[in-house]
Amino acid sequence: MRSLRSIILPMGASILAILIGGILVAALGYNPVTVYGSLISGAFGTGINIGNTITASLPLIIVGLGIAISFQSGLFNIGADGQYWIGATAAVWFGYHFNHLPGWFHMILCIVVGMIAGALWAGVIPGFAKAFVGSHEVITTMMMSYIGILLARYLIEGGPMQQKGFNPQSPEVAQNTQFPYFTQGLMQSQLSLIAVAIALVAVIVVWFLLYKTTLGFQLRTVGLNQRAARYAGINVKLFTVLALCLSGMFAGLAGAVQMLGVDHRLLDGFSSNYGYTAIVVSLLARNNPIGVIIAGLFFGALTTGGQNMQMVSNVPAALTDVLTGLIIFFVACERIIPQVIGWYRRRRTLKSTSAA
Amino acid sequence: MIFSDPEIWAATLSMAVPLALPAIGGTFSERTGVVNIAMEGIMLIGAFFAVTFSYWTGSAWLGLLAALICGGLTASALAWGAIRVSADQTVLGMGINIFAAGLTTFLLNTLFGFNGTPINTPKLPNVSIPGLDKIPYIGVIFQNQSILVYIMIVLVIVSHWFLFHTRLGLRMRSVGEHPLAADTLGINVWRIRYFGVILSGLFSALGGAYLSIGVLNGFTANMTNGRGYIALAAMIFGKWTPLGSFGAALIFGFSTALGIVLQGQGISSNLLQMIPYALTILALAGLVGRAVAPAADGIPYDPRRS
Fold first, then answer.
1. Which residues of chain A are within 8 Å of residue B98 when distances are taken between CB atoms?
2. What is the residue range of A90's domain?
3. Are residues B102 and A154, on separate chains, in Cβ contact within 8 Å?
4. B73 pLDDT exceeds 50?
């Protein structure tokens, strides 16, 4: 019953949001069927589109795993965007230095430093501030996120990582740290086997960590009831720092994977918003690592489909954000369902008693 | 010395407005026990509809009215979810923020095309208070400021008086501290909370409108640029009081103004923009001592269950 509800509810919320989006689109004079048609065909229409959708979903899945860990530990890591970019920056910096290292070792090194950088960005200041002073992590992670993105931007806009003589951007990472693309046919979608493998391994690791290890059990205990956790002898402060570190680690991993697999360098812009969309991914997945795959693919499809929609139907891609916001709102309002059922039952008993 | 230049204080005051207004709004919401992180989104809604209706009607004041109505409606959605449905208030706020960012960008592109809002959109007037502008130094600070700057100053004082010296203010605070006790005394907890949240929507929308038709006369995508979140920090920094929120907003406003001044001296703007964010973390990490939220902040209250 519980598991059934955890599938039906996000689906119902998504359908409701799509309906409202359709009304909005129709009110502005577009044909909702063509608009959504171009969205769906943009996401799944051809092999390359499907490849694009998977490529777009990988960072969402990996960041989403980190968010799921923080939510399960009772923390709200809202600053994963900055952790992602700090991880990306660290990976790129190592990626175009140390070129004498063997290729595979260099690649692994980039990924590992990306993970460490993300973990430290979330764990050190927000983690310790939460554990020892009680500073709310929603604000500290958010502020660190802004600082992280500004730092990355500074580094390539006149800072030490700017490639001389170009628009603000960093040098490209070494050729042998770049993930090879899946097949020639799918090259356009920049899909790589290594990135897919990393995402899948990450899902399994997080699932195993949360549900099959003592550490995961302790993390979830802290998330469910801090007082009980403390009585059980769990060091809540330590686990707060640890949970934020782990959460940031996956955001950093996503940044590294995206740099080595797709972007190959830091470019100006920094507006991917993976950190925010990943929160939605995790919420829709009920913070379940397996569910994160499905929710990640869903939002990957929304992203690639939205771009196609803007090109084909001339409807701004921002429509997908409208849908995302609505979905979160409706999922949050899930408790209306038992309330409505209770109200309906009460009315029925009232009717039957008055009839009798 | 840059501090002796009154221009930096004028800029500080101007930068403080879009932080102080939503921070005071957040204070009203959280004092009644509803966590409001949707200020960012409601500001965007306010900023966008202020410009749209200002352009359509040709009157910036009608634009402001539209901003308030739309902000109030958005806040009502948050209030309904938080109060009636007992949903997670942080998640609701997140949803509203993403929705608002998407909706305003979407409507900006569909209603005005991809080139932005028209340049002939009317804006609210800038005014100087006669007499005040004759005072040396102080006069420069209050010279030719947007009328919303003065409205904000009045609202700060009125809000503080309202929250701490009126019967309704007392009721709001009691509902946020101990809703069951308030309920027992015959106070309608839900109604007071609706009032607090909608009030916060009005203040946030006013802050957003200040950006779009007070300082400028146009809307750009995501023009609030995280101010709603800094306002959240200002509210906590100010210990959930209107006067404190205003003080905190002035500090953030000053750090932004300082950044602009220092940028003129060749320091990277990216690094300078970090100042308000770093200051927020420092503020939270104990510069102001432990900030204690209203006891029932974020906890739904269901009168049917108790």
1. 276, 280, 321, 324-325, 328
2. 31-314
3. no
4. yes
Answer whether B100 touches A (CB < 8 Å). Answer: yes
Mean pLDDT, chain B, as a whole number? 89
CATH code for position A48: 1.10.3470
Q: What is the domain partition of chain B in residue ranges?
A: 2-125+140-287
> Which of B85, B109, B280 minimises the CB distance to A139?
B280
Task: Read off the pLDDT band of B267 (50, 70, 90).
Answer: confident
| pLDDT tens per residue, range A238-293 | 999 999 999 999 999 999 999 999 999 999 888 778 988 898 899 888 899 999 99
> Are A135 and B285 a contacting pair at CB < 8 A?
yes
Q: 3-state class of A281 per DSSP?
A: helix
> What pLDDT is recorded for position A185?
64
* CA distance to partner chain B, nearest, from residue A11 (Å): 16
For chain A, helix, strand, coil in percent to 5 are: 80, 0, 20
User: Based on the structure, what is the number of domains in chain A?
Assistant: 1
Distance between CA B24 and CA B47 in Å, rounded? 17
CA closest to A156 among chain B residues = B270
Selecting from B110, B233, B280 the residue whose C-beta is nearest the C-beta of A28 gives: B110
Mutate to test the interface with B, among A76, A85, A142 (most CBs of B within 10 A): A142
Q: Does residue A350 sit within a domain?
A: no
3-state SS, residue A267: strand
Where b means 16+ CB within 10 Å and e means fewer, B72-100 reads: bebbebbbbbbbbbbbbbbbbbbbbbbbb
User: Is A130 within 8 Å of B290 (Cβ atoms)?
Assistant: no
How far apart CA B155 and CA B123 sit, in angstroms, is 21
Which numeric CATH code is attached to B2-125+140-287? 1.10.3470
**The pLDDT value given to residue A9:** 79
A74-117 per-position pLDDT tens digit:
998 989 999 999 999 999 999 999 988 888 999 999 999 999 99
Chain A: residue whose CA lies nearest to B77: A329
Judged by CB atoms closer than 8 Å, whether chains meet at B96 and A325 is answered as yes
Predicted confidence band of residue A186 (pLDDT cuts 50, 70, 90):
low
Residues 6+ apart with CB under 8 A from A121: A82, A83, A86, A87, A144, A148, A248, A252
B237 to chain A: nearest residue by CA?
A135
Choose among B99, B232, B273: nearest Cβ to A139. Answer: B232
Position A18 in a domain: no
pLDDT of residue A2: 59
